[in-house]
Input
Amino acid sequence: MSEEKKKNIEEIKKEIAIERLRQAPPTVKISFGTENGDFMSRDEIIKQIQNDTDIGKRVVKIQIEYLKAFKKGILIGA
Output
């Protein structure tokens, strides 16, 4: 797979994660197990994804893994 195609796939994954987060109310707060236990707002998480931070990358990975599991039916009956 070409480098350009890999980059495009990663951008699509980021867009998917951002759109899924935008479905949540803006008042939602999420914690990612950081040392200080801070919670991040939906918009802060979206900025993390857009800025390609470690947290942003982790969120994208979690969202894509969730969708793959959902497709396989792993989450049904959970």
Remarks:
- The mean pLDDT is 89.
- Helices lie at 3-22, 42-50, 54-72.
- The beta strands are 29-31, 39-41.
- The CA atoms of residues 11 and 50 lie 10 Å apart.
